[in-house]
Structure prediction request, 262 residues.
Amino acid sequence: MMPAAEIARRVIAALNSAGIPHVLVGAFATNYYAEPRSTKDADVVVSVEAGGLNKFLGALGPDIRLDEQTTFETNTGTIKNVLTHVESGFSVELFFLSNDDHDQERFRRRHATTYEGQSTFVLTAEDYVVTKLRWPRSKDFDDTRDVIAMQGDGLDWEYIHHWADIHGSRAKLDRIRASIPKIS
Amino acid sequence: MNSEVKLLADALFWEKLGRARAMKPEDRMKAGPELFDYACGITLTALREQMPGASEAEVLAALRRRLAIKRQLEEAAP
Prediction:
């Protein structure tokens, strides 16, 4: 079975080959900033019209298929398509860059890095926190706590507070920070 | 949670983050899919035992069904 890391590398390589600006979000960003954990999918925000994926899909190969069904993500108002590696079931969720103010800002600020020799981008730690605060799931609470604890004093709190106030998530942020165990 | 258990849980939390800090961010990112492959390997071993006589294609299909169920559960989680 093809390793999941190789599937993710091929998707990033195909995005680069097609000249599609992108940023890794979700579990890949969690792992970049906190403790690594198993992930069965990669989430990528792409700056391209839904119909502009043909060159990218052509570079992927027939073993990675696009689910033609487009879904609407209600938390952030974005549209996504899912790519699935046929044999392994490992999937890549493509979120299309929306007009949401923070979606635009986090994309503009994305951090350059590499993945398996491929140039790519990941959310900044601050934008990771701001994004996670908008999600209601308990696992997002834990992920945000871990990233805040891991990044320590290196976070730009003024920036995070600015967006948390706009999104109405400041109280949740305060609860997460209060939940971080004290160093004994 | 009693105070001894809380102290232990807090210590484990920081130990976990300490291990993560020892890795490069790029390596932590790569570890996600590698851990997925490791977990799938264990699941495939179990499926082969549970499905004697099944072909490798049938075992892989069973793995994909499990992953699909896991996704549905995660999407429905509070």
Q: What stands out?
A: Strands of chain A lie at 22-25, 41-46, 64-73, 78-85, 91-96, 111-115, 118-122.
